[in-house]
Amino acid sequence: xxxxxxxxxxxxxxxxxxxxxxxxxxxxxxxxxxxxxxxxxxxxxxxxxxxxxxxxxxxxxxxxxxxxxxxxxxxxxxxxxxxxxxxxxxxxxxxxxxxxxxxxxxxxxxxxxxxxxxxxxxxxxxxxxxxxxxxxxxxxxxxxxxxxxxxxxxxxxxxxxxxxxxxxxxxxxxxxxxxxxxxxxxxxxxxxxxxxxxxxxxxxxxxxxxxxxxxxxxxxxxxxxxxxxxxxx
Length: 233
Fold this sequence. Notes:
Elements: E1 2-11, E2 15-25, E3 30-34, H1 41-49, E4 56-61, E5 64-65, H2 71-77, E6 79-82, H3 94-101, H4 107-120, H5 122-126, H6 137-149, E7 155-159, H7 167-182, E8 186-191, H8 194-200, E9 203-208, E10 211-217, H9 218-222, H10 225-231
Parallel strand pairs: 3-8, 3-9, 6-7, 7-8
Antiparallel strand pairs: 1-2, 1-4, 4-5, 9-10
Helix pairs in contact: 3-6
């Protein structure tokens, strides 16, 4: 479904954020990219969703090249991006945030998608009239994911969904991600929390200093001594 070939992104004239990065995500998979802070994980997702311009390489989605395609058109192709830090609209209500995820849709379609979002995250229905900025961190993460799902994407890009959350909330978020995947949604997940992301993913990549250092099945990476020492303590 998604293929990245030899991606390179340079900040300014000297800082290489990504260097010759290649990966693929097949239909229905959860694939995770793990790495330390500053390893290039967020840059990778932004390059895929069109926020950042590629200096070299190619991203293809369902066989079509994304180079030069503006990010709003990439979203319409079926790629939804949940950014690091959630980035909800704090001065809008939960309902208004969700409605923006399906902007331009007819009311019947909007209502159907809202019903599905509330089924996945029942708490959001209770908070529908509450301002986004008054939600807890975990609730905001739920809202950010639900807003992305309102677009009915084919591929969901998740950037550090566990960041800043208590372990019990992280478990709930990841349980939901796993359930969403079982319904057929393809997911590319980037995380510093290697243990939990590898536990739900089929395959994984290790990103270090903007380059792919390791890749393989999640079980193989969990048992890899280098991964255990660097990311699993």
